[in-house]
Amino acid sequence: MISQKISTNYSEGVADEIVALKGYQDSQYEILHASRTVNDYITNKETSSVAAKEYAKLLSYLPKGPLKILDIGVGMGQSSALLASKGHEVYALEPNPVYCDIIAQLAKKMNLNIRTIEGVAEDLDKLGEQNFDVVFFNASLHHCDQPNKALENSYNLLKQDGYIVLASENYLRPWMSKKRWYYKLEHFPEQMGHYGGNEHVYYNWEYVNFLKTNRFRHIQLTPSAYETEPLERLEVILSKRINGVRVYSPSRVMARLLYYMTTSAVLKSTFLFNLLSRTSVVAANFIGRKASKL
Length: 294
Known about the structure:
By secondary structure, this protein is of the alpha/beta class. It has helices at 12-20, 25-34, 38-42, 51-58, 78-85, 97-110, 147-157, 178-187, 204-213, 230-239, 250-266, 270-278; strands at 4-5, 68-72, 89-94, 114-118, 132-138, 158-167, 217-222, 241-242, 245-246, 285-289. The strands form 2 sheets. Strands 1-4-3-2-5-6-10-7 form an 8-stranded mixed beta sheet, with helices on both faces. It has a two-stranded antiparallel sheet with strand order 8-9. Helix 7 links the parallel strand 5 and strand 6.
């Protein structure tokens, strides 16, 4: 049962994304029903979700709980389940009504403090809640059609000195233009691993500028926990299929593994991470604060 619905109309891209995910729904209900523990659910390889691993590390940068957390763009809710299992009060925002139903059933089954909200971040001004300690975007700001509106709403919902976290966002390397990226997405979607979602893309410095524009301060870039695990990343791309067809060819898998191993080594150096993440060469998570004094 969905706790609240804040969006009544979706953009064409978001509506298409909901339709594109229908083919996965039966298997995802099966994962829910087969899971006996929260850990079973959040570590299931069939979902290819890296959110739980990222969130587990990101929590170390945040105040001790229990916290009131808004989790945005949660998909099947693995990230929300992890947060709630650690004693936090979680509001899970997701536009897909089926996923909201899955999360609600999960919360009931596992006795988790999760409130499901059907909608998009651009409509969070309709939520009727305030004083969140943390707002997480679960690889979801790049799905927002109006990222500045989504961040403005997030700022208003946070308590003073509250935190915003952008986790696992899609990002552009500096050697590729946006025009080229969108061309490839349109003409070679399988090569891009595109499942039909509402996709936008930004360079890392654009995410930093989004946060600054919307009054967030003390912005920190942190390494991706997922990108420090080359074999785990390899498992994810090996499992990726679109319409039953593998997304990555054997040659691309080998090239990716080499890249993953190199990236993992680089991320162990604070200096190299700071240099390469700021220039959008490697992935980063972004943490900002609603500072009491600007």
